[in-house]
Amino acid sequence: MSWPPPGYRPDYGTGYRITFDDFRNLIAYLPYRSSIGALLRDWYGYEIVGSGSDAVVRAPTGDAIDLGALHAAIQADPRKQYDLYQRAMTLWR
Fold first, then answer.
1. Alpha-carbon distances, residue 1 vs 4, 14, 31 (angstroms)
2. 65 with 71: CB under 8 angstroms?
3. Closest CA to 93 of 32, 38, 3
C-alpha cells in the first residue's frame, strides 16, 4: 500500500496513538492474536506466545521483547502507529 493511505490526516497527530494498556490488551487477548501478530511478524519478524497475562512477544531468536520499548517504537513511526490504530479499530468495532 502506498503511504500515506487515502484518508490519512497528518494533522490528527497522536490521535492515531494506542495507549500502552490497549497495546498490551491487543497482545494478550487471544481473539486479537492473529491480526496483531501479523503486523508484528511483518514489521519485525516477532511472534506472540502465550495468552492473557502470560502473553509475550518473542524475536526470531526466541528472546522476549520488552513491550514498553516495542510500543514506543511503533508509536514513534507514523506509518506503524497508523496501521496499528486502524487494525485495533477494526477489532474493537
1. 9, 22, 25
2. no
3. 32
3-state secondary structure of 64: strand
State which H helix or E strand residue 87 sits in: helix 78-92
Distance CA 24, CA 43 (A): 17
Nearest to 23 by CA among 61, 57, 59, 63: 57
Tens-digit pLDDT profile for residues 25-36? 999 999 999 999
Q: Is 42 helix (H, G, I), strand (E, B) or coil?
A: helix
Q: For 28-83, write each residue's pLDDT tens digit.
A: 999 999 999 999 999 999 999 998 989 999 999 999 999 999 999 999 998 999 99
